[in-house]
């Protein structure tokens, strides 16, 4: 079966980057309080948002993976052989009976 599956690490990395950017924005939008420094606020909000965005981006990756499974097709491939220094070309045929 031939199908393209998403790269889960890339989805999660995008989620982490988005979470950090939103954390930076939220940290500097609100005024600093005497109880917590900006670094502490960045850390607290960052931990929460990174956790949420990693979960959301992993969920999106799973949804994309499931959608790509529905479009998967079975392909029959013949191999090529080298004959007298020349190469025969291989061919691929789509098996129409097993499409979903």
Structural class: mainly alpha
Average residue pLDDT: 82
Q: Cα distance, first to last residue?
A: 11 Å
Helix percentage: 55-70%
Order of helices and strands: HHEEEE
Q: Could you give the order of strands across the largest sheet?
A: 1-4
> What portion of residues belong to β-strands?
5-15%
How many DSSP helices? Answer: 2
Give me the count of strands: 4
Subunit organisation of the chains? single chain
The low-confidence parts are none
C-alpha geometry:
elongated
The largest pleated sheet is described as: 2 strands, antiparallel
Kindly provide the radius of gyration, computed on alpha-carbon positions and rounded to a whole number of angstroms.
24 Å
Features:
100 residues, mainly alpha, two-stranded antiparallel ribbon, two-stranded antiparallel sheet, 2 helices, 55% helix, 10% strand
Describe the structure.
The protein is mostly helical. The protein has a domain at 8-75. It has helices at 8-29, 38-70; strands at residues 75-77, 82-83, 86-87, 92-94. The strands form two sheets. It has a two-stranded antiparallel sheet. The chain has a two-stranded antiparallel sheet with strand order 2-3. β2 and β3 form a beta hairpin. It is elongated and about 80 Å long. The termini are close together. The model has no long low-confidence stretch (mean pLDDT 82).
